[in-house]
Design brief:
Elements (H helix, E strand, L loop, with lengths): L4 E5 L10 H10 L4 E4 L6 H6 L5 E2 L1 E8 L2 E8 L6 H24 L2 H4 L21 H10 L6 H9 L1 H4 L10 H10 L3 E4 L8 H8 L5 E5 L5 H14 L2 E4 L22 H7 L4
Parallel strand pairs: 1-2, 2-3, 6-7, 7-8
Antiparallel strand pairs: 4-5, 5-6
Helix pairs in contact: 5-6
Length: about 270
């Protein structure tokens, strides 16, 4: 069997736009054989699809490093492991505290009286779902505070605007990685291309991560080459993922390079080889 993997997919249980069953239908249409629903700090979307062939239990956990958000994908986890379950609850609460602080410091003309409660998607489940900056961006656009989601991030919500010590912080990368391993999983650095710097990626890997995504949209080819070489040298696990948030666009499940170092080892670790 030819394996096509996508271990980074989102639903409306965090900041995706689609219900889990719609995502599953897209995964099947694209011929993806092994996949993970990796919503931010929640496993609610995975639970709806549990038992589907090829589905690997996963989650994208939020960590912190020098004031900025770092995302760590946990694959092959036991979603009910107490330490990971408790950490997910704590991080979701911290996300809402952080969003409230971000809203408070936006100019009145931009925030338009929006509150954290206004960010919830009424179509999605309420309990156990996760709010994030994408939700805030959508709300600001809906209220006319900014014209587009892109502008909301470029002007107010991107990492360069929120990477500081004045906002409530997330747990360290090592704590998140340890919790994922305590739940039987592997800890994978998500979308390293967003850091644009191999030195920072190597610093994060030294915090106890087991591997990293070596193929994802937006990964600079030069940085990819450097990371591929490092992964082969250090025997890091290599994952692949589209980081898909909505359906109907150019990006589809599984449309990412599959030939990366460490992917066979990851598949074997997940029992998917």
């Amino acid at each position: 069997m030819v394996i096509t993997a996508d271990f980074h997919l989102h639903t409306w249980c965090s900041d995706g736009a689609s219900p889990p069953r719609d995502l599953l239908a897209a995964v099947r249409r694209q011929g993806v054989t092994h996949f993970a629903v990796t919503d931010h700090d929640t496993c609610i979307g995975w639970r709806e699809l549990a038992g589907e062939p090829g589905l690997i239990p996963g989650v994208e956990m939020t960590a912190g490093h020098d004031g900025r958000e770092i995302h760590v994908v946990g694959l092959g986890i036991d979603p009910d492991a107490p330490v990971l379950k408790a950490l997910r609850v704590a991080i979701r609460a911290r996300r809402e505290e952080r969003l409230a602080a971000i809203i408070e410091r936006l100019p009145v003309r931009v925030r338009r009286s929006v509150t954290v409660e206004d960010l919830r998607d009424s179509r999605a489940p309420t309990a156990g779902t996760t709010l994030g900056r994408n939700h805030l961006a959508r709300a600001l656009v809906a209220r006319g505070g900014v014209p587009t989601i892109r502008e909301a991030f470029s002007a107010w919500l991107a990492d360069e605007h929120t990477a500081d010590g004045t906002l409530p912080g997330f747990p360290p990368v090592r704590e998140v990685a340890d919790a994922i391993r305590a739940a039987g999983g592997v800890a994978i650095l998500a979308h390293p291309g967003v850091y644009k710097d191999a030195t920072l990626v190597f610093t994060l890997m030294a915090e106890g991560l087991d591997g990293l995504e070596l193929a994802h949209p937006g990964l600079d080819p030069t940085l990819a080459s450097t990371l591929h070489a490092a992964a082969a040298h250090h025997d890091w696990l290599g994952s692949v993922g589209t980081d898909l948030h909505w359906l109907g666009g150019a990006r589809q499940p599984g449309q990412v390079e599959q030939r990366v170092p460490g992917l066979p080892a990851l598949l074997a670790r997940l029992g998917a080889a």
